[in-house]
Amino acid sequence: MPEDLRQLITRHQLRGIRAGALVILVTLHFALALPGLLSSLEEYRHPWVPVTAYGLLTVILGGSVLLGLDGRPWPRGWVPTALAGAFAASVAATTQVPASQYFVGASHWSFTLVGWFAVVLLGHRGPMAFGAFIGCHLAVNTAQLLTADVPSRPIAAGMAASALSACCFQMTIAAGAKLLLNSSTAIGEALQVQERVRTRIAVATQIQTDQRRRYAELNATVLPLLTGLANGSLDPRDDEVRRACALEAARLRRLFAESDCTFDPLVHEMRACIDVAERNGTTVQLAVRGDPLELPLPLRRALLDPVIAALAAARQTARVTVVRGENQVRVGVVVDALRDRLPEPAASGIRVRTVRAEDRLLVEAACRITARPARSDRPEPPWPPAWPSWSPGGRRSRT
């Protein structure tokens, strides 16, 4: 899983955990600790000590709210400074608590409150770090109690139950927060799996739609041909029928080649059509010049259609050339047969040139392009002459 995705999920989770813990801490700070402080001022020997401790905790709370709501890691040094300040404030406030009120009375508000400060500041570190802080805090408060007075067994049992219940509840919250943060990797992997599934479904749907559209286009020519061969209305020994079969076979091979992922789609599709001609006994030479270009699929089809039609009419030899220049793409073929009818270009901007001389036919499809990708580092093949020397003297026609 990418690191940035995991960090993003962890940040959102941490923001939610801190927001929930801060809501609890703010509520306890002002709705529980403050009334307990104000109602117990007469019980304290030096009231200014717990008041000062409460003020220090309020400052730490304000800093935690400002720094923790964005879900980012705490600033360097903030966690130890805030924990040390909260610990010192609790110890100082506890020195003024009567021995009978430790852990159970409203005057000992600092014990539970400091535990929630630890949840906010150490919840992302897990139960080990949180337990170490709470254990030290509980041990110091217990030592302060024993220094002030040793309670009786029933009172000590009540104090222990109150202290442990508060600590265990806070420990559970810290452990749950750590487990939630640890699940960010699993959540990210699940999201990636869902995204891959959605992408595959979208790609499969698009491919199926394209294939249905292309098959529908081929049905207009392939299906009548197959029907005629099946019912005997077309003679497979007829040259025109055989050329039509070769043409449709080349188109089908091009259709299959369009789904391949290749470095040079135009040449790859042209080679697929050449393979059909070679299987029919035609010797084909292919010359390619220029770097591959990103041409749209409809444009590649329009460039290849006239060339494929001429190639299907070849008897023994054919020569195919593919030229990619700075602003033009040309695909041409010279065959040893004449063909009067060639398919019209299916895209605008395609120029088809035909030259007929003796028993040879030259067909060239060209188009202009407006953009060109960066040249690759692969070497160009040697450039042979584009057309034979007889072509200027032949009879020409333009479509």
What is the element layout, followed by pairings?
Layout: H1 3-39, H2 48-68, H3 78-94, H4 109-122, H5 127-148, H6 153-182, H7 184-231, H8 239-257, H9 265-279, E1 283-289, H10 297-312, E2 317-324, E3 328-335, E4 351-357, E5 360-368, E6 395-398
Region (Disordered): 373-399
Keywords: Membrane, Transmembrane, Transmembrane helix
Transmembrane segments: 21-41, 47-69, 78-96, 159-181
Helix- and strand-based class?
Answer: alpha+beta
Task: Strand order, main sheet: write it out.
Answer: 1-2-3-5-4-6
Global geometry: rod-shaped
H/I helix tally: 10
Strand content: 5-15%
Number of domains: 2
* Helix residue percentage: 55-70%
The tally of beta strands, per DSSP, is: 6
Largest sheet: 6 strands, mixed
Radius of gyration: 42 Å
Compute the average pLDDT: 83
Strand-and-helix sequence, N→C?
A: HHHHHHHHHEHEEEEE
Low-confidence stretches: 374-399
Distance between the termini: 56 Å
Transmembrane segments: 21-41, 47-69, 78-96, 159-181
Region (Disordered): 373-399
Biased composition (Low complexity): 388-399
Protein name: Signal transduction histidine kinase
